[in-house]
Amino acid sequence: MEKISQSVVKKDHAPKVSGRSVYVADYPSEGVLCGKILHAKVARAKVLGVEVPELPEGYFYVDAKDVPGDNNVNIVLDDTPVYCRETVEYIGEPIAMLCGPDPKVVEQLRDECKVNYEELEPVLDLRTATEKFFDYNFGHGDVDKAFAEADKVYDEEFETGYQEQAYLEPQGMMAVPEEGGRMFVHGSAQCAYYIHGAVMRALGCGPAGVHVMQDVTGGGFGGKEAFPSILGCQVAVAAHKCQKPVRCVFDRREDMEYTSKRHPSLCHYKVAVKDGRVTAMDIDVKFNAGAYSTLSAVVLQRGIIACPGIYNVPNVRVHGWAVKTNTSPCGAYRGFGAPQTFFAVELMMDHIARDLGVDSLAFKEAHLVKQGDQTSTCGKYHFPVPIPAMIEEVDKACDYRKKRAEYAKPQTGRYRRGIGMSMYFHGAGFTGSGERDLIKAVAKLRKYKDGTVEVLASNGEIGQGVRTTFPKIVANELNLPLDKVYYDHPDTARVPDSGPTVASRSLMVVGELLRRAAIKLREQWVDGEEQEVEEHFKEPDFMIPFYIDKFQGDAYPTYAWSVNAIELEIDTYTGIAKVLGAYGSFDVGTPIDYNVVLGQMEGGFLQGIGYASIEKMDYDAKGRIRNNSFSDYLIPTTKDVPNLKCMLHVEKYPDGPYGAKGAGELPLVGAPGAYVEAVEQALGGVKLNHAPFTAEDTLAVITKEAI
Ligand code: MOS
Question: Looking at the whole model, is its pTM more than 0.90?
Fold first, then answer.
C-alpha cells in the first residue's frame, strides 16, 4: 500500500465518538428564536388566506411578504419559492414560519394557524404526468436502420421508487443577524456557497451582506445539497424580520415527508439485437421531479448519460424527461440519477441474455466498453476500463460463475438461492461542463508564522473524511506531521469557493488543487513568515469539451468502476430474502486513506442493498408520503448483511491527487441490478422489472405461480 493510503485516525474522530461535536441543534438556545414551519396540508391549492392566531409579545409570523429580496431560491432554475406564492404545489410546502422563544408555544401557534385553501386537482401519477421541467434528446448512429435490420427487438419497462437519505441528523439551519447588518447563516449542509448565493438573493444583498458556515453535519448523502439553501433562506428571512437569531431544526417526520428524496423513475428500453449482439438502444427515461425543479436537470443528465450502461452500443437514442407532480421535490441522493438507469440497463441486458439462452455475465462481458471507445455522449473513455479484472476478483471472492450455474438448476423446498451481478461506472466529478463553466474552483493554503498550515476550501465534512484527507494530502507534500495541517468547517467569510460538496468531486478535484498548492508552498516556504498560496481549477487538456445544447463531449474526465455480486436465499413461506453475501470490487483510483475509502464502499453498498430490497416509500391518493419514521421506512443495518465484502481495485487517474478518483457515490449505484438479478434466479428464472423488490413483491410472484 502506498504511504498516502495508510490509514490515520480521522481528525473529527474524538469529538464525534465522545459526543462533544456541536451540531446546529446543540448551540445554546438563549436569545435564539425557535422557528417552525407551517406546511401545506394539501397537494395542490390556491391559498386564499391564513388566519393567524393572536401572537404573544416576542412571537412572529413570517411569510413571502417578509422576503426583502427575491422570493425565489437560487438552485438551478428559480422556481422554488422561499415561502409559498399564491398556490401550494405539494403536501408540506412551506407557507410560513412561526418564530418565538418557547418551542412549545411556537408549535401551538403554528398548529392554530388556519389556512384557507381552494383545492385544485393534483397531478400524482408519474405515468400520466406531462408537464416537463426538462427534456433532453441525444444519441448517435442510425437507430432506425438498426431496428429495421434487427433479428429481434426487446421492449421492456423498468420502475424504481423513492429513496430517503435517512441521515441521522435531520435538516437544520440557523440565521444570526450580526452587527452592521450582516447575516450569518450556519447549519447542517453540504454546500456553503450554494446557501450563500441563495440567501444573498432572498435578502437582496451583496456578497458581503451574508456569510455561511457549515456546522458539524450528521450525514448528507445528497439530501443536504440543495435543501439547506431553501431552509437557509427561510431562517435568514425570519431573522431579518425578527432581528434576532432564528433556528429551525426539522423533526424526523417533517424531514422524511417533506424534504428531497431520490427520484422515482420509469425507464422504457427498446433494444435491437442482431447475430447475438445488441445493435441499438432506444431509451426513454422519465423521472418524477416533484413540485419544483430544484436539481432535477442535473440528476436527469447523469441518469441518461449512464442509461446504455457500460456496453458498446453502436446506435443509441435517448430521451430523458423530468416531469412535475404535486409531490415533494426530489433531489440529490448518492448516485444522482444513475442508480435508476443502471438498474434498468443491467436487467435489460440480463433479460435479453436469458432469452438468447446465454448467461447474463457472458453476454455483458461480450459488450463491455474498453479504453478508447466512445461514450454515450460521443466523448471518450480516455483511461483503461478495469472491469474484466474486477469481474475475476468478484468471481474469486464468491465463486460467482459456479454458484450462478448451480442456482440455475430447478430448486424445490422452502429456501431457494440466487446470485446476480452488476457492472457500472460512476462519472467522477460534475456532469458536463459544470466544473469548467460554473464552479471554477479555487482552493488556498495559509501558512502561519508557527509553521502550521490551514486548508482554505468550501467542501464540507459529511462523514466522507475531507477534514482528514485534505490535510493528509497537504502534509504529505510539505513533509509535515498531520497535526500541523488542519481544515476547519468552511465559512464563506474566510474560504474561497472551491465548489460544492457533491458529485464525488471534493477529493479528486479540490484535493488535486490542494496538492498543487502544497507543492507551490513548499517551493516558496520561508520559516517564521505568514504565507498564502492558491490554485485554480483548469479542465484537463485531454478532455473533449462537453456542450449541453448538443449533449456531446466528455461528460466526465474519468470514471470510477465497479462490479457487484449479491447472493441471497429466499424463504418462500415469508418472501423474505436473506443476503448471504454481497461482494464488490470498487475502483476509485488511489485510496487517500484506506479505511476512509473502505468505509465509504461498505456504507454505500449497504445503502444500495436497502434501495434494492426494503426501502419502500410511496405517497397515497392524496399525495401524502406515508412513511415518515424509521419504523415504517426501514433501512438496513450491518446485521442485515453480515457478509459484506468490499475490495479496492486501483486504476490510477493521472489528474487526481496521487491517482485518486471520485469515490463517495460509486458503491450505491449497482446494488439493485445485482440484487434483483439474484431474486430472479432464486424464483426460478422469472423476469422482474422494479426496485425495491420487497418480501411482499416476492410473495406476489410465488402466489401467482402457485395459482
Ligand atoms: Mo451529491 S448526490 O452529488 O450531493
Answer: yes
